[in-house]
Design a protein that fits this description.
- The structure is a homodimer of 409-residue chains.
- The first copy, chain A, has 409 residues and is of the alpha/beta class.
- Chain A has 3 domains: 146 residues, NAD(P)-binding Rossmann-like Domain (Rossmann fold, 3-Layer(aba) Sandwich); 161 residues, Dihydrodipicolinate Reductase, domain 2; 69 residues, Lrp/AsnC effector binding domain/regulation of amino acid metabolism (RAM) domain (Alpha-Beta Plaits), CATH 3.30.70.
- In chain A, 37% of the residues lie in helices and 25% in strands.
- Chain A has 15 helices and 18 strands.
- In chain A, the strands form 3 sheets. In chain A, strands 7, 8, 9, 10, 11, 12, 14, 15, 16 and 18 form a 10-stranded mixed sheet that branches. A 6-stranded parallel sheet of chain A has the order 3-2-1-4-5-6, with helices on both faces. Chain A has a two-stranded antiparallel ribbon with strand order 13-17.
- In chain A, strand 5, helix 5 and strand 6 form a beta-alpha-beta unit.
- Chain A starts with a strand and ends with a strand.
- Chains A and B meet through helix 2, helix 7, strand 12 and helix 13 of A and helix 2, helix 7, strand 12 and helix 13 of B.
- Strand 12 of chain A pairs antiparallel with strand 12 of chain B.
Chain lengths: 409, 409
């Protein structure tokens, strides 16, 4: 029998407890040994639960119990999660977490510590919720050199954008609906400003390219500036707007990393990822594009990914799973790299004829969608280095406003 | 250093050799020990290759060389692949294969043999080519009870159907184009009649539901009867026609398993899987729908999946990967189960008015698409047990022909 402790009994933690306790037989059939939840750490009381006798309030009870071999950290946040995880690993316990903030900030350090102590530090649920993605990248694509990771990494923003696209709902109404349905927090900043997706890009980039990437190294932009006009205009070009997180390998060995609203062609499978679903596309030099799709959040989905990691830890007591990367460095991420791309441009002017004339002279031969009524013209550029495109766009002086978005074709 | 032998130097085998030899450094960095290709078994000569000194013609050289720890079987077919794989396992060598025919026919037996000899028998490439799917099902979804597996499992037929849908090409022209492009064999029967997809359903069902499923237990229908009229008619209902392989768990513990052309709603992510791409959707009780997408065939993609298995074998010499199922049984698959479903019906008659009247009386309130010019009416039924629907459809006597297809909504 292997003893496990769960730190945190919130949404994910209670889900983990329910699966480990409620489906103990199923779990034991996979691990070939019973898995016993010995402690659940939470400052709150849960008197009504069938397993209420397992609750404790002192972390040291877990730390000092040599019988506890695997600890699940599902408290969220950096503190005290980081301190607790570090102490558990140093006490030769394997740690499983769903905490993307923790892994994005401290992943390399905790991985190295786990290596030193010959225990496992696993975090499959931290990126895709219930979507298997980290293990497939590390194991199944092991024969590949990964050149790019691109994904829809946040269900809240995808739900909001989807409501704007399909139901013509404006941003604030869609956000309010997402909050009402429990898909968005009361304070939605982490989602709508792209920070949640940013942390997942960090973890995916680190695993794919071998070095830690810190959140502040990712060029991050949310969806708060996306309007129904953008959505409608994108549709004219056969595109939908998605919040895309991506990291790409550059020819000099460095990488770019970004989160930003992006026009995605309806021909691309990512355009069909709707509602709260997430998807991660990985490009390997041998295998081409591979995509993983599923629910990126939610109690059961996330808890089941955590439990899968617990099963793996139990099966590998005393052995190491290779899921690792090196420390990061300031120059590893280079977002100034001048990559060839196509940009989407939408400009508005009260002098509509003047605007159209100017754009036709700067971008000759480009096909535009014009809307004289709104004084608006929109187009997608040919593929050129981004600096060249930005310089051309800066020459559009007849416009009252110019909006530029990246594209994914 | 670990010595490996490759049996077969066809499309996949040469790809495996090229990765293992050409990217030896990358492989060694994953395995932490060099991987050396000691022998390549093929009856043909390949004098021009840089590694032509590795070729042998006698299988016993591999079998009797105790230094060879991992054998890659990429010959295809059941014989002699089955005999060779069995002998290698009995000589305590791990075996990796991409051979779906072999795994679908003999998987349970070879898995059991590998367990007895404490070696690994891995076959990730046998189902999805380069798409990671077997390992994610076995490991990442381990906390789930899987209730259904549904997928587009054959790139050739998906390419043909896609050409019919997008380019309005008829079946034979699309097949000829697929052959010209190398996506279809000169004898395309295994693909277009559904046998290839059937073997993959066997493997997916066995891994998901724990018991071997034999090809003859899968109700299999190909795409040779699909016409442009079907494609166009499906479009009227917001659907595309895909060859769908699926296996579902029944409430009595048995399963259904089928391969058949199916109308897939454009709202379903599977509808966006185009060209030679494949996708496998897995439904877990905790995680909901999860989908894996990528190239289901092709030299590099398939070879990279084989090499990932080789890496896993090398990392687990003397240890077992759990990827297994039990022997099958005659009553495990029950395709007579009367599941609730929606069927698509298209009927043609020279007495068009009579046909419409009769259908309206058998299926009152159903919304139809009528084409008087072709004397044709098409509709999708409400959801009812299939036997009830079949019995109603058999009452359509005014039709010259009636075509029925399954649907996926």
């Amino acid at each position: 029998m292997i003893n496990v402790a769960i730190m945190g009994h919130g949404v994910v933690g209670s889900g983990v407890a329910e699966i480990l306790i409620g489906h103990a037989d199923r779990i034991a059939s996979k691990t070939k040994t019973p898995v016993n939840v010995k402690y659940i750490l939470d400052l709150r009381d849960f008197p009504g639960l069938s397993y209420s006798d397992k609750f404790i309030k002192d972390f040291n009870t877990i730390l000092n119990d040599g019988d506890v071999k695997v600890v699940v950290e599902v408290m969220g946040g950096i503190n005290p999660a980081y301190d607790f995880a570090k102490k558990c690993i140093c006490a030769d316990k394997s740690v499983v977490t769903s905490n993307k903030e923790l892994v994005a900030a401290k992943g390399a350090e905790l991985i190295k510590l786990a290596e030193e102590h010959n225990v496992n530090f696993l975090f499959e649920a931290s990126v895709g919720g219930g979507i298997p993605v980290l293990r497939p990248i590390a194991q199944c694509l092991a024969a590949n050199e990964i050149t790019a990771v691109t994904g829809i990494l946040n269900g809240t923003t995808n739900y909001i954008l989807n409501k704007m696209i399909v139901d013509n709902m404006d941003f604030s109404s869609a956000l309010a609906l997402a909050q009402e349905k429990g898909f968005a927090e009361r304070n939605p900043a982490a989602d709508i400003e792209g920070h949640d997706a940013c942390r997942k890009v960090c973890i995916l980039a680190a695993l794919s390219f071998g070095k830690h990437v810190y959140p502040e190294q990712v060029s991050t932009e949310g969806i708060t500036d996306i309007t129904l006009d953008d959505v409608e205009s994108a549709d004219n070009f056969g595109c939908v707007i998605k919040l895309i997180g991506s990291a790409r390998k550059l020819s000099n060995g460095r990488i770019t990393a970004s989160v930003r609203p992006t026009l995605v062609s309806r021909d691309c499978i990512l355009s069909g990822v709707n509602g709260v679903f997430n998807a991660i596309m990985v490009h390997g030099d041998q295998t081409g594009d591979v995509m993983f799709y599923g629910k990126g959040a939610g109690k059961e989905a996330t808890a089941s990914a955590v439990v899968a990691d617990v099963i793996d830890c139990v099966k590998h007591i005393g052995a190491r799973k290779y899921l690792s990367w090196e420390d990061g460095s300031a120059d590893f991420v280079d977002n100034t790299a001048d990559l060839a791309t196509k940009l989407y441009v939408r400009a508005v002017s009260s002098d509509f004829e003047g605007l159209v004339k100017q754009i036709k002279s700067i971008f000759p031969g480009i096909s535009c969608v014009k809307n004289k009524f709104r004084g608006e013209i929109a187009f997608i550029t040919d593929e050129e280095p981004e600096s060249v495109l930005r310089s051309k766009i800066s020459k559009i002086q007849n416009a009252d406003s110019v909006k530029v978005l990246h594209t994914l074709f």
